[in-house]
Amino acid sequence: MCENVALDGLATTTGLPEAHHLPDKGTADNPLRVGLIGLGSMGRHHARVIRATEGMQLVAVADPGGDRFGVAGELPVLPDVHALIDAGLDAAMVAVPTVYHEDVALALAEAGVHTMVEKPIAHDAAAGRRVAAAFAERGLVGAVGYVERCNPALRALRERLDAGELGEVYQVLTRRQGPFPARISDVGVVKDLATHDIDLTAWVAGARYTSVAAQVTHRSGRQTEDMMVATGLLEGGIVVSHQVNWLTPFKERITIVTGEKGAFVADTLTGDLTFHANGTVASTWDQVAVFRGVSEGDVIRYAIPKREPLALEQESFRDAVRGVSQRHVTMAEGVATLDVVEAVLTSASENRTVEL
User: Fold this and answer.
1) How many CA atoms lie within 13 A of 272 on its CB side?
2) Are residues 99 and 122 in contact, defined by beta-carbon separation less than 8 angstroms?
3) Where are the beta strands (DSSP E) in 260-328?
4) Superfamily in which the 32-148 domain is placed by CATH
5) GO molecular-function annotation terms (predicted)?
6) 211: buried, middle or exposed (CB in 10 Å: 19+, 13-18, 0-12)?
7) Beta bridge partners of 94
8) Distance CA 356, CA 351 (A)
9) pTM of the predicted model, to two decimals?
10) What are the angstrom distances between the C-alpha of 216 and each of 69, 242, 349?
11) Do β-strands 142-145 and 114-118 pair in parallel, antiparallel, or remain unpaired?
């Protein structure tokens, strides 16, 4: 799935030119010429997946820091985005540190290259708007790499919510915790990890944030925050809660959606989706029956097909460039997520609830 949400002002922008697609490319016989900039912890996986994706051909790679994971293969390691562009590209993947997203993406837009940028879209929302506008003005496909939308558990969850299996959605709760990853050096846990939770929550619920209140801590000696707890509201009164940190000695990636018929639990580490139904068996025990809430019902863990999320993400980007589908996360959505991220940081620094 990995698709955008049709939210007013979020997934679409009016008054801008139609996207310039490449309908005759992106097939096995005529693949898209793809460049990759950034050969670090994420870039190495993108290189592997691009090479394995039908209709895409990795023709150039760039990283001023070299190729420490040895993923370039027969390709020379180019020094910068301008050398990458000179290789002649149809599309590009940007996996450089967040602080460089704006400059690299703007150069690719100026060159007329369809581009996917790793999350977040830029180092701040103002920069994200400049990037999104540059691609929209030129009719180029601009995507943001929120790979969690391609996780099989969340895809199955979204499909079941769309089918009405939970009824009205009351709450979305996420927990994204684990040890500090050595790959991160330029942003804190909010822009690195919590941005996933904010994006997937709005996407799963099909509603935008209206307010957030948050707290962060700095416990490990780094300049940026390493722990966050946030609560908020989405349109329609849906309550949200996020627990995110780099200080837990085990890894956890859980999304719980509670509604009128029960609760879905999506584990994105394993790709499993479980449904806990509200109980429907009447109780004759007066002390229990007087409680006017829900009870435990049937529990189902679904058997769902599981593919690598990064592979689905690249296929969605390829198909958007070809003009055959619009399943990618748009840059407009990336900016909307960054607006919420910045509201979280503002709330934490000023100790107040921020309205969106």
Assistant:
1) 11
2) no
3) 262-267, 272-278, 296-301
4) NAD(P)-binding Rossmann-like Domain (3.40.50.720)
5) nucleotide binding
6) middle
7) 37, 117
8) 16
9) 0.90
10) 33, 12, 8
11) parallel
